[in-house]
């Protein structure tokens, strides 16, 4: 049963992280490889602020959200918009964005590495402390509960936003056919900025939560999550909100089960083997829709 | 010169193996197959060649030959299984393949040297042999870019339906991409391990894919010349940047980002444009001096220096334009 | 310029005196190798290169090691052990990448001015450098790099003891605490920790006649340890062994406490250097053996600590102490060789290594198979700082 707690909390971390990547990828067609860097840099910024002053949980989370959103908007304006303006077709734009993201990601990473010398940093200067609770024989921490609640709430909110709101409709329209959407009067640039800001805010939020729950991370921590988030999104099917949640919890479950049932070292092989198999059976992810074209 | 060569030997060797690695990912991309399996083949190649030399005392060339055949076969099998996947789903499946290879390397116990990896792989592999193998591989790849084969490859990438209607067996081409990618990846890995004498699980991870992609995208994704430019730049750049000291990583990131933003067709594309432009200006000037009509790139005549000429020149700059417009149609299954 | 010349002449006089004194001691030590060291054998400056990561993932260790080298070389140059010859240290950065490390090693080999180099702290970089250096005959001393394939011949040396060689000094702690079973978590991210986790600790348990209740190998990419922790705790061990790198030590301590485990945790030196600070009170009671701690009592260690504090204004880490001893070992070998020739230095290192010496890492240090052997110390993290529990006897 304690393992179930592990699965749910780990899955929620993956979900929160992957959610931000998923909404930009599924709508405005940006697979943002700088997402991990934004995640890390938000937590890093919060730890810098905490060196100066003591703050509680909410202000620290807000710092993470603000830094994440700001950084993502900056990346969008300075890198991705420029690439899209110059690219000659969609396929090469996709590749340029991938590489541009990788290049941009190095910048915050280098700053954090330089400042910390790759030593771990944490948020222990915050007045908020992580505490264990006992719920019917199961041990959970307050930050774990918060992570799960926020992940599910934000996931639901994002799904509703995309499904119901006018902006969401416009975004999905872009995802299906950008040209037609533009003809229908969708302001692509503004929507893209809003989406990137939301995505960055989620990265920042998950960065701070993750750092609280692990105690400390290093400048490189974001990179590891990037590959896993990529896997979660693909597993569920790009553009599907249900899919990303499914992918996150399935990956977490696979990892936890293998880690606890074997001596551990084959975890990655089995979880990636699983992804491989799922793709063979469902070539567009489990909840992937055929009409969303990806080349 | 030989002094320069001996003190930069490692960089020269890395450039060659980096080039072949970049090609192993560029070749499938050029056929429209979004596969990163080349990086996994590189890992298999490095370990296989290392093990053959270290544990079974094979000679360098035999080890390389066996390895390349092996990775080509693995490429074929992998291709047969996953070639129905498309786009980034295919990319993910191949990334999964690559990462599984690293996990196997860590868990291989005695055979793969666990997290230490293999070391002390010393052979009679010479620089001449390495250059010869690289040039041979490069020549084969270059041949696939010109003439009839080159045009077919372009069509398979840009419009698989058109290709199929022209009687090209698209599936066979896509499968070939996996085989070639496997062989090239295996060659790169095998050569690298034989000159570097060591390989560890960390050398064959996700970073390898990133490096190869960076080389291709910044260098130029449509030609082996682009891969060559990328391999030279990204092998030597970090070394040149060490003079900057502590902020070198930052500068590296800025350079990659700027190159990706400003050079949509890669550095090779820029050079190509520059060369065409220079050639045309020269010809125009000569023609102007004679006062006659200007002979165009494609042999057509065009009137001197007017708006139509400028437009025609621009059109000539972008030979891929027609195909690209076709490719932006919905492609259904592709 | 003139001033400089004058100073140099005065130094030369001093040098003669010091050399005479030193030769006397060397003779007492029974080494007659130093006899060949005539003043004209050594060039005015001897170039050394430190090929270490100063940027990238392992920069923290590389930078600390470089500080140790610089301090030692400054002292050596002031001491005139080398009869007026000056050691000149160039720092090159490997950017934490094996390929760059191999490239820099090749550059150093090709530069005939370079007499010897200090090799990288990272195993992955070191095993890429060693075959080249051994094959082409350039002496190298590594620190940290603890895997196989680093020391491959007489040209390659390592001034850091293998963790598996001193880890068993923890036996005393385990006995004192009366533990009768251990649950083990270790990472396969580094060869050293993998070896200690999968071989040294089980061997130690067997020697002590205690039980290993669970042993979990955690892949390098896992960042959240709650699942393996609950797994280990379910097996109900008396104490937990957690062998992880850097930041992971913080996570594992915090999550162990959250999971209700209150006992001590046996760790490794990856938790030192203040890495546990972010864990706050949860980090308390992690106990680990290490080759050096600034509180250790040996006279030679304390002399180093004082010099280091005076120079850099902080307490030295083990990386700096190892580097310091490496530099002095090399300098003594160069003095004994009486020449900056690479092969002569190598031969002198071989004979020097037969003697024990006192250094930053402790007293009575010796070499075994090209790797230094030290007594080691056991430290405990109090939640705020490192507390020295006891020092090894050198018999482990």
TrEMBL record, chain A:
InterPro entries: ABC_transp_permease (IPR001851), BCAA_transport_permease (IPR052157). It is a multi-pass membrane protein. It holds the Pfam family BPD_transp_2. It is found in: Cell membrane. GO terms for cellular component: plasma membrane. The chain crosses the membrane at residues 56-80, 92-111, 143-162, 192-213, 225-249, 269-288. One of its GO terms (biological process) is amino acid transport. GO terms for molecular function: transmembrane transporter activity. Keywords: Amino-acid transport, Cell membrane, Membrane, Transmembrane, Transmembrane helix, Transport. The keyword Transport applies. Its main location: membrane. Belongs to the binding-protein-dependent transport system permease family. LivHM subfamily. This is Branched-chain amino acid transport system permease protein. It comes from Geodermatophilus amargosae.
UniProtKB/TrEMBL annotation, chain B:
It comes from the Bacteria. Residues 325-334 have a biased composition (Polar residues). Keywords: Cell membrane, Membrane, Transmembrane, Transmembrane helix. One of its GO terms (molecular function) is branched-chain amino acid transmembrane transporter activity. It holds the Pfam family BPD_transp_2. The chain crosses the membrane at residues 6-25, 32-54, 60-81, 88-106, 118-142, 175-195, 201-219, 226-244, 250-271. One of its GO terms (cellular component) is plasma membrane. This is Branched-chain amino acid transport system permease protein. It comes from Geodermatophilus amargosae. The lineage of its organism: Bacteria, Bacillati, Actinomycetota, Actinomycetes, Geodermatophilales.
UniProtKB/TrEMBL annotation, chain C:
Keywords: Signal. Residues 45-383 form the Leucine-binding protein domain. PROSITE patterns: PROKAR_LIPOPROTEIN (PS51257). The keyword Lipid biosynthesis does not apply. Coiled coil: none annotated. InterPro entries: BCAA_transport, Leu-bd, Peripla_BP_I. Pfam families: Peripla_BP_6. The keyword Signal applies. PANTHER family: LEUCINE-SPECIFIC-BINDING PROTEIN (PTHR30483), PERIPLASMIC BINDING PROTEIN OF ABC TRANSPORTER FOR NATURAL AMINO ACIDS (PTHR30483:SF6). Belongs to the leucine-binding protein family. This is Branched-chain amino acid transport system substrate-binding protein. It comes from Geodermatophilus amargosae.
